Amino acid sequence: MHAQAKQADILPERTRQALDDALAQVNQLVLGKPREVKLAFTTLLAGGHLLIEDLPGLGKTTLARAMAATLGLDFQRMQFTSDLLPSDIIGVSIYDQAAREFRFHPGPVFTQLLLADEINRAPPRTQSALLEAMAEHQVTLDGTTHALSQPFFVIATQNPVDLAGTFPLPDSQMDRFLLRLHLGYPDASAEREMLAGADRRDLIAHSMPRLSAEEVLALRTAVGNVHASDALVAYVQALLQESRRHPGVQVGLSPRAGLGLLRGARALALLDGRDHALPEDVQALFAAVSAHRLVPESEAEGRDSLAQGILRAVAVD
Fold first, then answer.
1. What radius of gyration do the chain's Cα atoms show?
2. I need a surface site. Which of 61, 119, 171, 186 has the fewest CB within 10 A?
3. 228 pLDDT exceeds 90?
4. DSSP letter string over 36-67?
């Protein structure tokens, strides 16, 4: 009874129901991917950004559009190409002769949910245009700082197979993504329902918002009220330290990665209706939070396998 009362204090019942309805609706639009949908919501509520690395046609755009429609967020999609310029993302100042001054014309980054499609097809200079926006939720042009809409959430995609004409994201850019995940092929029943059912785009177009932007911001505030015990913090620190000495790892995890892991664990606990984070939350997120941040000593070392090895090497006290 006491736990229920504490949970009610963190999240009002109406908001809890709306969050559950939002999850259910996105799962109806993105079939057969409940874990991936939950991780996407975790990233959003934790205030991070999401990198989806997978083959074309597996629902990356559908997931982004479904979340925007369900959460009542402004949405922009940008197709990254080799000739994309930073100004194509953040905007440009154009001289207004009538007013005799430069006027700022905002780019697609001035939205609430930005889908950066095939981000690794743009050159590094253009990729870096997103750095300040993702880290600081603002852009600076000609000495003037422009705040972005809130909440601001980037879902970026990249294709791991077709490497022709791509520019690998530098470590500083990879570190801006709280989670990296793969969607993968749907299972047989989900694929059959998809093939026999209505077009996903039509379903999304007719979907009603289950939450508002203001409620998403309130949920982010609630994440900060989820308790993380001293023992859990010590467990996360032990994982960070193990990553820096683990065989096969050249560069381990930074404190920023640990902060992101803790906040993600709190967000996952909130989604599960708890007022406290558990080691199981950290374990569920660890590979998705850490693998893309690890630098292996050899190309033969898989980042995902290194992350799993680090997780196995650290016991829960």
1. 20
2. 171
3. yes
4. HHHHHHHHHHTT--EEEE--TTSSHHHHHHHH
Give the pLDDT of residue 126: 85
Contacts for 139-145: CB closer than 8 Å, 24+ residues apart = 139/90, 139/91, 139/109, 141/90, 141/91, 141/92, 141/93, 141/104, 142/93, 142/102, 144/104
Q: How far apart are CA 67 and CA 115, in angstroms?
A: 11
pLDDT at 3: 44
Distances (CA, A) of 314 to 27, 109, 317: 33, 40, 9
Per-residue confidence (pLDDT) for residue 186, from 0 to 100? 87
Q: Which pLDDT belongs to residue 9? A: 66
Residues 6 or more apart whose CB falls under 8 angstroms from that of 155 comprise 40, 49, 50, 52, 60, 63, 64, 67, 113, 114, 115, 116
Global confidence as pTM:
0.91
Sequence letter at residue 113: L
Tell me 164's DSSP state: T
Strands 144-147 and 138-141 come out as antiparallel
